[in-house]
Amino acid sequence: MAEALLEVRHLCKYFPLRGGLFNQHAGEVKAVDDVSLSIPVGTSYGLVGESGSGKTTLGKVVLRLSEPTSGQILFEGDDLGQLTGQRLQEQRARMQMVFQNPYSSLDARKTVKSIVAEPLVIYKRAKGKELDDRVNTLIETVGLRREHLYRFPHEFSGGQRQRIGIARALALEPKLLILDEPTSALDVSVQSQILNLLLELQQRLGLTYLFISHDLGVIRYVCDRVGVMYLGRIVEESTTDALFADPKHPYTQGLLSAIPDPDPERRFAPVEIKGELRSLPPGYTGCRFAPRCPFVMEKCREMDPAFIETAGHWVACHLYSTSERTRGRRGTEANAPD
Amino acid sequence: MSMSVGDPIVQIENLQVNFRTFDGVSKVLVGVDLELHRGDILGLVGETGCGKSVTSLSIPRLIPTPPGEIIGGRVRFLGEDVLDKSDAELRELRARHIGMVFQDPITNLNPVFTIEQQMIDACLCRLGYRGAVSASPFRWNSASREHGREARATAISLLERVGFPDPDRRIRSYPHELSGGMRQRVLIAMSLAGNPDLLILDEPTTALDVSTQAQILRLIRDLVDEFHLTVLLITHNLGVVAQVCNRVAVMYSGRVVESGEVRRIFKSPSHPYTIGLLRAVPTMETVRGTLEEIPGTIPNLLTPPVGCRFHPRCPYAMDICRQDPPPSLQAVDGVEVACHLYDDGAHPDLLERHKIGTPQHG
Hints:
Distance between the termini of chain B: 47 Å
Structural class of chain B: alpha/beta
CATH superfamily of the largest domain in chain A: P-loop containing nucleotide triphosphate hydrolases
Distance between the termini of chain A: 40 Å
Helix content of chain A: 25-40%
Largest interface: A-B, 42 and 46 residues
Radius of gyration of chain A: 21 Å
Strand order of the largest sheet of chain B: 6-7-8-3-9-10-12-11
Number of strands of chain A: 12
Helix content of chain B: 25-40%
Oligomer: heterodimer
Radius of gyration of chain B: 22 Å
Structural class of chain A: alpha/beta
Order of helices and strands of chain A: EEEHEEHEHHHEHEHEEHHEE
Strand content of chain A: 15-25%
Strand order of the largest sheet of chain A: 6-7-8-3-9-10-12-11
Order of helices and strands of chain B: EEEHEEHEHHHHEHEHEEHHHEEH
Number of domains of chain A: 3
CATH architecture of the largest domain in chain A: 3-Layer(aba) Sandwich
Shape of chain B: globular
Mean pLDDT of chain A: 85
Number of helices of chain B: 12
CATH class of the largest domain in chain A: Alpha Beta
Number of strands of chain B: 12
CATH topology of the largest domain in chain A: Rossmann fold
């Protein structure tokens, strides 16, 4: 496999909870808890999970917009966690983010031109005529026209705004783009335009993507590898084809079957994930999915499963740590918890 | 109300709505035709700004006026014209015959009242009380206390029915203490309080995660059978339509462009916009790089395109499309479609034309 552009090792991000008398430390929220992943140059890694699973926090910590509690983030071999000052700035320019909501991530008081030019100005990469040229090229790269540069964000539709956000992210010629739900605020017809644009840009500019989304259809279309996150941890990871063809973790199975199929001939009978994502009580040591898992066993409530490899999948589930590895597979009597 | 069996519950004919804005008059609806029969679960799909919500708001006549203005057409509910009703009749209609659930559950619950107070209000409305009774000074009156107790019992049983856990205790929560899925359940319970004939669900699962969405969709399907509801489900998720609805109406820029049975339309869509929509959804089978786009963006409603409003984005646009808007819905092969391609009643092979890529005439 090609060299990893981004490698995350045992990354943790805990947010302290304060309360009680004198606002003392009262525990923590483990937003990202011991996550490791590696993204080879020029590929896309998809991160899926429900809201509150820690996807966005992970994206922010990778950019060091939020300081990690522990763990390493290696970007082209440099440990971002150790970098400071000048060197950090330089590396940050090589990784950019596209945000979820194109309605709030663009400054309403600036013209498109100054929005797209801003990174170049901050990093003193270009000015005057050269700056104009760069901005013109950028805006055409994302499929907008030059006359759009002198308008304000409110004059654009959601899809066009997301294109502006992408142009801004591309301004510094980054290697890594972190795409945080780039299409979830858009209509399907526009979503397909943006997805195809992202694929085309990746091919043309050799970009690497960390693609965060809760839409499994979108992830499957764009990504090479997928990690499924649940309550701060990656519970299953595999190549996209393998993960969708044969999901191992009960949570992944539930998520996949919960997508309403746009083919009315196919029956919609989700492997039901009961309840909803909720923080674990302090001192809980079992599997974090156990309270909602249809295949829960005695030991799931006691011991956190290790992240192990089974037939090309990485999965953290007790169902696969013993001889009982075939239980809970999709396609078998999945709705009958035995 | 007077109506015979088999008459549609909702009948919207050629509805036209304008909104006045500072920039001019925005023609939001330009002749919407829609029918709902008892027991239907009709999916109303389309892009943002195509008029889905305005259409649904016209049934209980909730379009904000001004800036909105109904300039033509008719809206009949249970055989009676909604546009002729007095305010008192409308209040009755909204309280007992139509339930509504909106997209974003947090903005539709009052943050300063508990679920209990809001649920009791909804249940009291059904008993003929007006407004926020639980917050009024008359609650000390013994008769209204009696009604209050009755309403509270109804509220709890409704909450229990929609899968709200431990309603007896958790009914005292404030909206911010609940998750998105739970808030949506509360709103669904509230909309059922009046024992309505029609339930309007405006993007009920858009703000929710897929696993919660699946739970809510299952609930909706169960409730339809149990309460003999007719449902108008607004969504832009075609998967939701395919799995929950029996009929679908596709809207584009202020008109219904295609409507009919879900199975039929999903299998062989007729209108070019419906075709585009169905192909733009990445599914488990889509091969990378082959996802089709509908080029361009939705038209500006202040200066809509002349002729068919879809023609600038349509791969099959003909000269007539640029001049005349298509006639109202006509029946073609068991579905209803508004498109010039079907003017002569024939069913052209759109796939073949698409391959050729050049628009043909006739």
